[in-house]
Amino acid sequence: MSQLVVGVRFKEAGKIYYFDPGNLFLQVGDGVIVETSRGVEYGTVVSGPKEVPDEEVVGTLKNVLRLADENDLRHLRKIKEKEKRAFNICQEKIAAHGLPMKLVDVEETFDGNKIIFYFTADGRIDFRELVKDLAAVFRTRIELRQIGVRDEAKMMGGLGCCGRELCCATWLSDFSSVSIRMAKDQNLSLNPTKISGICGRLMCCLKFENEAYEQAKEKFPEIGKRVKTPDGEGKVSGMNIFKETVNVELKESKLVKEYPCDKVEVIPPEGDQIEASNAKNEGSGNQGARTAGRDKKCEKPGRSSGNRK
Predict the structure, then answer these.
(1) Beta strands in the chain (DSSP E)
(2) CB distance 47 to 7 below 8 Å
(3) Are strands 141-146 and 114-120 parallel, antiparallel or unpaired?
(4) How far apart are CA 76 and CA 73, in angstroms?
(5) Of the candidates 42, 41, 47, which has an alpha carbon nearest to the alpha carbon of residue 5?
(6) Is the pTM of this model over 0.85?
(7) Biggest alpha carbon distance in the chain?
(8) Do the Cβ atoms of 150 and 196 come closer than 8 Å?
(9) Gap between the Cα atoms of 203 and 150, Å rounded
(10) pLDDT tens, residue order, the chain (309 aa)
(11) For residue 196, what is the DSSP state?
(12) Among 6, 56, 217, 292, which has the highest number of CB atoms less than 10 A from its own CB?
């Protein structure tokens, strides 16, 4: 069995959530009013109606209430103005209470039942008095949510070292685990300032580019392998995936030279050479020996001509 769903996003580069479109005819780019666990929200359709298996649907699908109209868009603009005002007021309250926290963003639900303040801090913050002050000003439910530095960069945006807008703020919807091993596999400098984003963590592009490097390395000999080159034997000391070359430290001269990948041949380990030599010797006997060997291999107990009766 399958269900008809549409993918809706509430923020640019935010996560995609699936909803039941009901009888509505929806297209990518449509503004919709949907029912969420936080209440009624405004979102944008980013993936058109499609059938998905029941096992891929987590929990019960919420409904798309209706297409957004002009009144909804005017209400959304008012909310954005109110969020800016709330941001300034919250900053003043934080300074008044002397709290060691940095306000990052403010978000108000479409139905106005809750205002969420996102902040960063080095540790836990006692903001109970701050919540009381904010509730007295806005007279609605107040939620303060502490976020990490990666979420802060996603919300605030900016430019990466490549000169383009941050991936997390433009199209990357989920954060993946990034390791220093990925930087090593891509032959990057391990200088933290060169492989870290503006959030101070390892750059997300190390993760989604790593698969391409792994596939490209399959045709290269591993670092440390013994190889045969036009100039003699040596050991692989490095590689250049883009130029499709390998650096080889020659055995005799100890010089490091660069060779095209197709100009070097991996030398098998000693054990493999011995096995290959034994296999060659076994096949070098006379025809009668080979025939006897095949007959012995094919012979099975209980299958001789005398036992067929």
Answers:
(1) 2-9, 16-20, 31-36, 39-53, 62-67, 102-108, 114-120, 141-146, 226-229, 232-240, 245-250, 256-260, 265-266
(2) yes
(3) parallel
(4) 5
(5) 47
(6) no
(7) 105
(8) no
(9) 10
(10) 778 888 899 988 788 888 988 888 888 989 999 988 878 889 999 988 888 777 777 777 888 999 999 999 999 999 999 999 999 999 999 999 999 999 999 999 898 889 999 999 988 888 989 999 999 999 899 999 999 999 999 888 888 888 889 988 888 888 888 989 898 888 788 888 889 999 889 998 888 888 888 888 888 888 888 888 888 888 888 888 888 888 898 888 888 888 888 888 888 876 444 444 554 455 544 444 444 444 433 343 344 444 443
(11) B
(12) 6
Tokens representing residue 29 in the block: 């780019």
Please return the burial class of 197, using the count of CB atoms within 10 Å of its CB with bins 0-12, 13-18 and 19+: buried
What distance in Å separates the CA atoms of residue 19 and residue 62, rounded to the nearest whole number? 5
Length of the chain in terms of residues written: 309
Cα–Cα distance, 251 to 231 (Å, whole number): 10
Q: How far apart are CA 257 and CA 267, in angstroms?
A: 17
